[in-house]
């Protein structure tokens, strides 16, 4: 019970991570580099935000004219509806406004809209944002926010981590363009992978700092006693930053990186020159229970191999659809339909005899392999093939 409470508290706080301005700027610039008019004349919706201080709202409002936006809509979730509610205080911006309502500030979401030069300054910018309370709490699943979704052309946000699947489905059912933040593990979800395989959704252009994002988090998460590595959680410029691994942008808007093929060596060249000890001087092997070549690093993909290959999920950061096709992913939801055979009792015995540990059953369909006579369980893999 205590553990469940702890896990819930952590999930609640994880839903309250905020994105840094330079991360948003870098990603959005990549779409603009590829197509400078990608946002021109468009209505952009930023749901699951906190417009008064969100960097998404700030970025899009400040660059409204540069992007050529038609309308910017940003909405927030009511503090009372959030899983993590501690320490809520309305901002001065809100309390000093004539429409401030001391009850609604807790129970209602807010909507900020930017579509004209409200203060007659001669330009449309962040100063022209108009706000009011929503009728409801701003839940993205509500009728009110669905209506805004349907009005929008492009949806951009870092949605609550705990509702990522639902949020993704919410966008896809409306057929909208989007740029959102999620975890790399989501690529193998049964609700998401089919879109990646079919080339309808892909990873964004930038992938934070080697896959680790530093989000602005609630300072109550700071516990020096539990933070052994100061690089994972620290204060910077008055903000508490929290490192989260495996973070990516997901999108269906084109960018240049998708059209840059990987420069790869042949199998023989890899074996001779690879910088990876698992590849240099070794032989590539096939899985014991699937007819595909194990490739431990994306930059070790042999350029002259035409068959199926299992590559790390991080391959998707470099994926160029003109160069490779995605065939499948080794997760439980897809392993059987892909034809990955159950590992079998005999393999488990060999694995245990070689010192392998962990609970395994013969009907499991994890990818497994034998390297220098030692049976191993593969890391998570995406299955790909060179484009013919
Ligand atoms: C990961 S934070 C990101 C905030 C902001 N988009 C950013 O990146 O700076 C997700 C936000 O969604 C809010 N949220 C949680 N559940 C929600 C829901 N069902 N509908 C709308 N927003 C929700 C959270 O309270 C939190 O403010």
Explain this structure:
The protein is of the alpha+beta class and 388 residues long. The protein folds into two domains: 2-257, no CATH class; 260-386, no CATH class. The chain is built from twelve helices and 17 strands. It has helices spanning 2-14, 21-34, 55-62, 64-67, 92-95, 104-107, 143-151, 164-172, 193-197, 267-273, 332-338, 344-353, and strands at residues 43-49, 71-76, 110-114, 130-133, 154-157, 177-183, 202-203, 213-216, 233-236, 239-244, 247-251, 293-294, 309-311, 324-329, 368-371, 374-377, 382-386. It is elongated and about 75 Å long. The mean pLDDT is 92. The structure holds S-adenosylmethionine. The site of S-adenosylmethionine has 21 residues, from strand 1 and helix 3. S-adenosylmethionine (SAM) binds next to strand 1 and helix 3.
The major β-sheet equals: 8 strands, mixed
Tally of discrete structural domains: 2
Hetero groups in this structure are: S-adenosylmethionine
What string gives the helices and strands in order?
A: HHEHHEHHEEHEHEHEEEEEHEEEHHEEE
Radius of gyration equals 24 Å
Distance between the termini: 54 Å
Beta-strand portion reads 15-25%
Q: How are the strands of the biggest sheet laid out side by side?
A: 4-3-2-1-5-6-11-7
Mean pLDDT: 92
- Structural class category: alpha+beta
Unreliable sequence segments: none
Shape type: elongated
The number of distinct β-strands equals 17
Range of helix content: 10-25%
Q: Helix count?
A: 12
């Amino acid at each position: 019970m205590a553990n469940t409470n702890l896990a819930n508290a952590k999930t609640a706080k994880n839903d309250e991570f905020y994105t840094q301005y330079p991360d948003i700027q870098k990603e959005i610039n990549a779409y603009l580099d590829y197509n400078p008019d990608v946002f021109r004349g468009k209505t952009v919706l930023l749901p699951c935000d906190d417009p008064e201080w969100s960097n998404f709202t700030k970025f899009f409002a400040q660059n409204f004219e540069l992007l050529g936006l038609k309308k910017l809509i940003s909405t927030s979730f009511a503090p009372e509806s959030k899983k993590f509610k501690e320490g809520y205080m309305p901002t001065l911006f809100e309390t000093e406004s004539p429409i401030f309502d001391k009850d609604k500030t807790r129970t209602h979401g807010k909507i900020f809209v930017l579509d004209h030069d409200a203060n007659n300054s001669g330009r449309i910018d962040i100063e022209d944002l108009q706000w009011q309370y929503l009728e409801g709490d701003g839940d993205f699943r509500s009728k009110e926010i669905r209506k805004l979704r349907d009005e929008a052309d492009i949806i951009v946000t870092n949605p609550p981590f705990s509702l990522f699947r639902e949020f993704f489905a919410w966008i896809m059912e409306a057929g909208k363009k989007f740029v959102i933040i999620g975890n790399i593990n989501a690529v193998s979800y049964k609700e998401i992978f089919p879109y990646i395989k079919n080339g309808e959704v892909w990873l964004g252009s930038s992938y934070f700092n080697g896959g680790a994002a530093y989000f602005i988090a609630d300072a109550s998460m700071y516990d020096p006693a539990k933070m052994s590595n100061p690089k994972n959680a620290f204060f910077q410029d008055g903000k508490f930053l929290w490192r989260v691994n495996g973070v990516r942008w997901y999108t269906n808007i084109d960018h240049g990186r998708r059209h840059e093929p990987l420069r790869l060596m042949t199998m023989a060249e890899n074996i001779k020159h690879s910088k990876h000890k698992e590849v240099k001087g070794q032989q590539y092997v096939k899985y014991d229970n699937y007819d595909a070549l194990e490739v431990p690093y994306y930059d070790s993909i042999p350029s002259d191999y035409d068959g199926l290959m299992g590559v790390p999920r991080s391959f998707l950061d470099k994926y160029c659809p003109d160069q490779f096709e995605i065939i499948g992913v080794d997760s439980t939801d897809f392993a059987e339909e892909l034809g990955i055979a159950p590992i079998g009792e005999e393999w488990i015995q060999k694995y245990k005899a070689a010192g392998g540990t962990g609970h395994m059953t013969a009907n499991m369909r994890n990818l497994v392999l034998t390297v220098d006579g030692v049976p191993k369980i593969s890391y998570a893999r995406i299955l790909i093939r060179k484009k013919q």
